[in-house]
Amino acid sequence: MKPMKPLFAALALTTALVLPGLAFAKPVTLTVTMNNYGGRGAYLAVYVTDPAGAYAGSLWMAGGKAKYYRHLSDWARFTGSDPAQVDGITGASVGSGQTLTLDMDLADALFDAGYTLHIDAAVEDMRDSPNEVSVPLTAAGAGQAVTGGRYIADFTYGF
Amino acid sequence: MKLSLTLILLGSTLSAGAQTPMAPPPPTVQSQSVRDLGSPVLLVSEDDDEEAGWLSFGDDDSSGEDCDKDEEDCPTAGRGNAAPAGTVAPPANGLFGDGKAPKASTN
After folding, report:
1. Which among B75, B91, B107 has the least Cβ separation from residue A88?
2. Average pLDDT, whole number, for chain A?
3. Does B49 touch chain A (CB under 8 A)?
4. Which CATH number fits domain A25-158: 2.40.10, 2.60.40, 1.10.287, 1.10.20?
């Protein structure tokens, strides 16, 4: 048997290392439409809990001032308001009546496995609103609008 | 007659001079006071959304005030703000399939 040429061996190795990551990632779009609540920009924490209800991680933080994170009370309880949880996934707060669209590649393992996506919301001088959205991550749930509570009109995720 | 008028005028002048210490503050002091009173109004009108202090943010806050990062009882004390998207890699929490940061847009 002839030995494999080094170039092919390297190609096979890199393919084996890269493909599993691609195979287990799914492009997902999250869309959050805000009500016309009339206040200033809303802080939103988008995060996931596992089948046991434990915090699994954050997907996005809308709002850059960490000192206000404690008003996102469920997320704050899970994380201790730790800004490191949202390093690299933090953007601007979302204004009244605006729509926030998030495009990301999520692990396939999150879907149809008991994971739940949550959104906490808070607005200056208005009531805090933890867990405004709580939606199981399932393939069947894609494209189905979920009604929010105080500040969020609706939320949708799609592939 | 002229002497009487001169004495009256002189008396009035001295009397007015004696009251000078009781007079209102000089104009420069008044101007400073007006500037001091005006500053907060200017700051409020120039506030943008991110810079405003959320002093009475939400009803679930028993203290009614927000904390600064240098306060001891502040949960974010000693920790800065989160790094904005695009400046560092997203957290390795296993949720992001390829480690790429999400892309956000608002309209």
Report:
1. B91
2. 90
3. yes
4. 2.60.40
